[in-house]
């Protein structure tokens, strides 16, 4: 049994903490994250409010926990939505080849011209800013990424003998894609999904910071930071905690993804 | 070579056209009435009809698309509703800010990333290497806007060395440069995290090759070997990432301008969203996407300059 890579272990620990806290917030938070109490605004850390309260007297820990849950939900939906469309397109391109493959890949190239922010800006301008639009924008940028990874890995599998055997046995391209190609490229897709999860967390935070994501009163690390920025002189500590949460979550999923790649594709370890 | 140039240029023009179709489609075809979006729910029917007429909303979609592209090619992006001036004037006014920030950010990124990456490679598996790798892992996870807030809290609020944001124009060059320092650093630190990693792994790859050993054996100093022999040969992957990062740089500029209240295009685009100024948003999104596509095109051409071997293969 090979020793697990350090990045995988550290990533797994950080991800467990963040996901654990997000899950815990479903059943318990120390206070209600939205309850305001102007008389206790800017309270310092204490036994009742572990990290103190914000400008409206809301408990900071409770808000951070609720924000963790929102952030995980956004990332999960965006990666699942964009990922499944991307994987389907990649499998289709690889299975059919020819002009379909060319077409899908040109579309993917086109997708790369739009960073999530630009897409979110367009949606916000037309429909008004909302978390749904942010999720759609992040999903959208995931489509070309997953389409490329899937096609590249699938093309390798299509050259294998057992695929040739399945074709000789008369199985159709879609059946082969489902039964032979997909299971064999699942590792590459999971690695990519973990890394894109980190990217999605970062994107949600940035969009919410800019006002294009979570709208009040929903808790979001990004929005907490944009509120804290206006209070920098009064309560600088409020601008610290949400940032640390973002870094922990992004670092965790990033390291976990790198670690998973090292485990599933040992050739790369040597190359580095 | 001529065929290569022709194919790449054609691909570039087609991509730009496709991008313009996407931008136009998202901004115009999706359900919703732009006139209603701009004027709000309580606008009178007359005002709505007048605005629809002015925006050309009564024309067929295809006609509107072609006239938008045709006018844009001549530098006419229509009229901004909120500022009541041509969008092109707004862009011309704000563009220098964004370009200065992007170029300064890119330069600092390159200097930082190349020196850190080469240092890490030279110190492979020793202290410096671990340090750079740790910093870059952290840099990838830190959002640029949070780093900006931290920088402002330290250098503007606490130490009072630099302004916390805003830009008073170039009439006072010293003040202007001072207000660009924090935004540039915030942009560059985050950007260089990825690039330093790529530089390191690409340099490590090159350092294994025979000609590097030969250069060392013939008595060249470590510094000279690294910067004259290793770096130029490690450039292809680095340029690729620089090109891919251009999208991140554009996004980063938009974010940073909003964090520091810099009057550039990124700030303009957010003001326009708040003002429901659709023609301005549409023009700016198109402009930013065109910048990303152009950067990728230039990178494609640069490959051939950096690595003439690629010419034969393309």
TrEMBL record, chain A:
Positions of the ABC transmembrane type-1 domain: 68-257
BP GO annotations: transmembrane transport
Gene3D superfamilies: MetI-like
UniProt xrefs under CDD domains: TM_PBP2
A GO cellular component annotation in the UniProt record: plasma membrane
Protein location: Cell membrane
One Pfam family it belongs to: BPD_transp_1
UniProtKB keywords: Cell membrane, Membrane, Transmembrane, Transmembrane helix, Transport
Statement: the UniProt record of this protein carries the keyword Cell membrane: yes
PANTHER family on file: OLIGOPEPTIDE TRANSPORT SYSTEM PERMEASE PROTEIN APPC (PTHR43386), PEPTIDE ABC TRANSPORTER PERMEASE PROTEIN (PTHR43386:SF25)
Family: Belongs to the binding-protein-dependent transport system permease family.
UniProt name for this protein: Peptide/nickel transport system permease protein
Species assigned in the record: Sulfitobacter delicatus
Phylogenetic lineage: Bacteria, Pseudomonadati, Pseudomonadota, Alphaproteobacteria, Rhodobacterales
Automatic annotation (TrEMBL), chain B:
Ranges where the ABC transmembrane type-1 domain occurs: 95-299
Transmembrane segments: 99-122, 134-157, 177-198, 234-261, 281-306
Domain of life, source organism: Bacteria
Gene Ontology cellular-component terms listed: plasma membrane
Localisation per UniProt entry: Cell membrane
Transport in keyword set: yes
Keywords assigned by UniProt, alphabetized: Cell membrane, Membrane, Transmembrane, Transmembrane helix, Transport
Membrane topology: Multi-pass membrane protein
Gene3D superfamilies for the chain: MetI-like
GO molecular function: dipeptide transmembrane transporter activity
Coiled-coil residue windows: none
PANTHER family: DIPEPTIDE TRANSPORT SYSTEM PERMEASE PROTEIN DPPB-RELATED
Sequence similarity: Belongs to the binding-protein-dependent transport system permease family.
Name assigned to this protein: Peptide/nickel transport system permease protein
């Amino acid at each position: 049994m090979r020793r697990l890579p350090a990045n995988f272990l550290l990533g797994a620990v950080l991800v467990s903490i963040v996901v654990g806290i997000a899950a815990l917030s479903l059943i318990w938070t120390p206070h209600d994250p939205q309850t305001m109490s102007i008389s206790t605004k800017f309270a310092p850390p204490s036994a009742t409010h572990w990290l103190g309260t914000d400008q409206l007297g809301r408990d900071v820990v409770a808000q951070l926990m609720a924000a963790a849950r929102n952030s995980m939900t956004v990332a999960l939906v965006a990666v699942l939505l964009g990922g499944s469309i991307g994987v389907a397109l990649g499998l289709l391109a690889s299975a059919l080849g020819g002009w379909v493959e060319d077409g899908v890949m040109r579309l993917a190239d086109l997708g790369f011209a739009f960073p999530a922010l630009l897409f979110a800006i367009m949606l916000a301008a037309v429909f008004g800013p909302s978390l749904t639009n942010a999720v759609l924008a992040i999903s959208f940028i995931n489509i070309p990424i997953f389409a490329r990874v899937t096609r590249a890995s699938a093309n390798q599998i299509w050259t294998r003998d057992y695929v040739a055997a399945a074709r000789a046995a008369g199985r159709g391209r879609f059946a082969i894609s489902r039964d032979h190609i997909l299971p064999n490229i699942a590792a590459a897709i999971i690695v990519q999904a973990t890394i894109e999860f980190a990217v999605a967390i970062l994107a949600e935070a940035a969009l919410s910071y800019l006002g294009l994501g979570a709208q009040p009163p929903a808790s979001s690390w990004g929005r907490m930071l944009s509120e804290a920025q206006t209070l920098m002189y009064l309560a600088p500590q409020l601008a610290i905690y949400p940032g640390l949460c973002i870094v922990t979550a992004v670092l965790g999923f990033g390291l976990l993804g790198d670690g998973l790649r090292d485990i599933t594709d040992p050739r790369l370890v040597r190359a580095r | 070579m001529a065929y290569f140039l022709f194919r790449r240029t054609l691909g570039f023009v087609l991509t730009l056209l496709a991008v313009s179709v996407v931008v136009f489609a998202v901004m115009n075809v999706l359900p919703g009435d732009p006139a209603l979006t701009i004027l709000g729910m309580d606008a009178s029917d007359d005002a709505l009809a007048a605005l629809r007429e002015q925006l050309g909303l009564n024309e067929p979609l295809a006609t509107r698309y072609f006239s938008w592209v045709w006018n844009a090619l001549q530098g006419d992006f229509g009229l901004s509703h909120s500022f009541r001036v041509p969008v092109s004037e707004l862009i011309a006014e704000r563009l220098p800010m964004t370009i200065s920030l992007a170029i300064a950010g890119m330069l600092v990124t390159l200097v930082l990333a190349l020196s850190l990456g080469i240092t890490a490679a030279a110190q492979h598996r020793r202290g410096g290497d671990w340090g750079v790798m740790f910093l870059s892992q952290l840099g990838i996870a830190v959002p640029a806007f949070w780093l900006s807030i931290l920088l402002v809290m330290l250098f503007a609020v606490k130490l009072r060395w630099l302004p916390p944001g805003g830009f008073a124009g170039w009439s006072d060059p010293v003040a202007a440069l001072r207000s660009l320092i924090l935004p540039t650093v915030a942009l560059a630190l985050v950007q260089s995290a990825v690039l330093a990693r790529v530089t390191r792994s690409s340099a490590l790859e090159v350092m294994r090759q025979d000609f590097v050993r030969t250069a060392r054996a013939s008595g060249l100093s470590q510094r000279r070997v690294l910067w004259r022999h290793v770096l130029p040969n490690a450039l292809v992957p680095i340029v690729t990432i620089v090109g891919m990062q251009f999208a991140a740089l554009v996004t980063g500029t938009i974010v940073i301008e909003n964090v520091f209240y810099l009057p550039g295009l990124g700030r303009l685009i957010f003001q326009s969203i708040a003002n429901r100024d659709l023609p301005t948003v549409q023009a700016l999104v198109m402009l930013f996407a065109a910048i990303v596509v152009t950067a990728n095109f230039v990178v494609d051409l640069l490959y051939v300059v950096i690595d003439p071997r690629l010419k034969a293969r393309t």
